[in-house]
Amino acid sequence: MVWQNAALGMAGVIGAGVAVFHGILIQRLMVAPFEAVAMADRRFSGTTRRLVAPLLHFSTVVWFLGGIALVFAANVLDRDARLAISLLVGGTYLFGAVFNFWATHGRHPGWMLMAAAVALIAFGTIASGV
Q: What does the pLDDT look like over 86-122, one tens digit per residue?
C-alpha cells in the first residue's frame, strides 16, 4: 500500500503546485488587466468588479485544497475516506484537464499536469483495492 499512498500524495503535490502557479498567472494576466479596465470603464458595476477575481481564482482554490486533501488522505485517512477524496478531487482534476485540453487545443501544459495527477489518483485508488 506504500506505492499507492505515494501516488496519491504525488497527485496532491502536482495539483497544489499547479494551483499556485495557476493563481499567480491568473492574477498577473487576467485579474490585474481586468481591474485596470474596470476602474476606468464605469459600465462595470462594483459587484462585477468585486466578483471577477474570486471567480477567476475559484479553480485555483479548488485545485489547491484538493491537492492538500490528497496528501492528507494518503498519509492519515482510512481506505473509505481515501476513496471519497480520490473520487471528488479526481473528478475536479479530470474536469480541469479535459476542458483545458479542449479550450487550448492541447497547446497548454496544464491539461497534461492535471491528467498526470488523475492517472496517479487512479493508480493510487485502484491498485489499493478500493
A: 999 999 999 999 999 999 998 988 899 999 999 999 9
Helices (H), 1-130: 2-26, 32-40, 46-75, 79-104, 109-126
Which single residue is written with the C-alpha cell 504525488?
10
Quick one: three-class SS letters along 77-101?
CCHHHHHHHHHHHHHHHHHHHHHHH
Contacts of 120 (CB under 8 A, 6+ apart): 7, 8, 10, 11, 14
Q: Give the position of cell 485540453.
A: 101
In angstroms, the CA 28 to CA 16 distance is: 19
